[in-house]
Amino acid sequence: MENISKNREMIISFTDISLKYKQKKQSLIKKSLIENKYILKQVSGYFRKGINAILGSSGAGKTSLLNVIAKRIQNSHNTELEGQIQINNRSYNYSQFNNLAGYVMQDDYLLPTLTVKEYFQFAADMKLSIPDKDKFEKVINLIQKLQLTNCQNTLIGNVMTKGISGGERKRCSIGIELLGEPQILVLDEPTSGLDSFTSYRLICLLKSIAERDNCTIIFTIHQPSSDIWNLFDRVCLLADGKFVYQGKRENIIEYFNTINFKCPRYSNPADYFISLISEIGEQSTNRFKYLTNQYSQQLEQNVNETILKLNSNNLTQINFVASINKINRISQHYMLKKLLLRQIKLLSRNKIMIYARFMQVIIMSLFTGAVYFNLSRDYNSYTDSYNIAIFLYVIMLGQFSQSETPQVINFSAERPVYLKEVNQNLYTTGAYFLSKIIPEIVTCSIFPIIMGLIVYWMVGMTTSAFPFYLLVYILQSNVGNSFGILSGSIFEQPKVAISFATTFLIPQLLFGGLFKNRNDYSSWIGWIQYITPTFYAFNAAAVNEFEQTNFLYNPILYLNLDLNKWVCVGMLATLYILFNFIAFLILSFKKKNLQ
To answer: Is Plastid a UniProt keyword of this protein (predicted)?
Structure first.
């Protein structure tokens, strides 16, 4: 299969592609109107093996064209896509494109606590169904080809952790895609944020890949240097959603000379042509119209004829069918195993978070224990029974918050990585989600046990009630963690996710069962308590503590905490499953609607 893939050519052709977004135009006087914004306007073209560069000013439609080719844009209620896109004269869908192509996003979403080699090894495990020894050799060879040998054992890093450079991060992202031996490689602004020398080395690398592997490489680029410009095989110039040039790089200067736009002899051609298609007032509108008219008259017919000629080649059709059937069958069990190992590694290397949570548990345990130290237990005292109830309420509400907040922060940061990797077909949403929650069950059990062992005995609670109390405490911690995952899966911005998660603490406080009898709520709002984890945790803990005592003022009676404690345990488990299930559905939906 490897030898066949290196000899085939993948040709992407597209005909009459139009893309428009429907936007609401707000008005204070009239109703909001639907306004159509055209991104691509009946463009046709093709990409062959080699370096295909798409240039244009911001908003010209460069990235949109890439996403249309990659099937990341589909028709929806606010998006309308028309036209035909084919690979080797065959229509294809998103899944088929991923089987034979790689897509490198502009932003390098990588996990900061993995090394370059570990990242490549994980991608090889997920993409390749070959013996482990062959995978390792392939990883080492690719690291050498990408010139990442010196940093292969260095953490990726982020703002908080020192890691590899920007150019090395970009090569790492490209390498992850190359492990799947793609015949097509699509990159969005691969040189963004890199200096000129690093950018040149990167494009040289892509050039060598295209020549060595017979690969069709397509990317958008903004203001390439003259050295980079000379590496391009084909150039596409986009202006306001239309082509003004499409063809070989060496022919572009001659073409523009014929339409009276002469590139200065000692200037960078890329800078000159981009300046021509940049929007600067009314003059640019007239220039765009002239350039697009000249393209229609002189180049468009030749492009369309070339598309027909390329698509008539029967060999290219056979190559496409062979490629989309090249699917690496990785079992769900193997996938889950590798994801679990990676997740455990990520958790163990996040030393700042581990240290912070450990210190939080110790400090909060000692502080809470000091405040409620050795509570008095006068069975005739309303105050004493109420103080014990307050302690149980505070400890359950606090445990929910302590587990929820760190998970919101972690999951919000990891969410873009998940979306990128699951859309690269590295793994399934189900395998990822299980690998995420299984280790968290352990961490959400260890910290409550530590806190429970400290606080429970400092306060002087009933000895025989401790095992059940610990069970409820651990369950409440896991429910808080699951709600943190849910919050992080809903919102893209960590700040918004944290705000949402924090807001959920308000109904926990109001409907937890301490400040108002559960039967005293109005029917239209009282139902909220039944989806409030703290209500069940507090009810179970209170019944567990007070059911065998002789308090005259028993909280079970005056707070109406009459639910069976095991029913409460079951409801906590149900909420844990429910929050996780909703988060799983949201992540699955987000995967389908990445663009």
So the answer is: no
Per DSSP bridges, beta strands 184-187 and 12-25 are unpaired
- Amino acid at site 289: K
Q: How does pLDDT run across 105-132, given as a tens digit for each residue?
A: 888 889 999 999 999 999 999 988 889 9
Structure tokens at 475: 């369950």
Residue-wise over 198-234: b if at least 16 C-beta within 10 A, else e?
bbbebbebbbebbeebbbbbbbbbeebbeebbebbbb
User: What's the whole-model pTM score?
Assistant: 0.83
- Please report the DSSP string for 444-488 in residue order: HHHHHHHHHHHHHHHHT--GGGHHHHHHHHHHHHHHHHHHHHHHH
DSSP label at residue 441: H
Kindly report the number of other CB atoms within 10 A of residue 37's CB atom.
10
pLDDT of 244 over the 90 cut = yes
- Report d(CA 389, CA 534) in Å as an integer: 13
Q: Report, as an integer, the average pLDDT of 243-267.
A: 92
Helix (H/G/I), strand (E/B), else coil: 189: coil
Q: Domain 2-106+188-324 sits in which CATH superfamily?
A: P-loop containing nucleotide triphosphate hydrolases (3.40.50.300)
The tens digit of pLDDT for each residue in 519-578 reads 777 778 888 888 899 999 999 998 988 887 777 788 878 788 888 999 999 999 999 999
Angstrom distances, CA of residue 455 to CA of 23, 384, 400, 503: 56, 17, 16, 27
Residue with tokens 């922060």, as numbered in its chain: 409
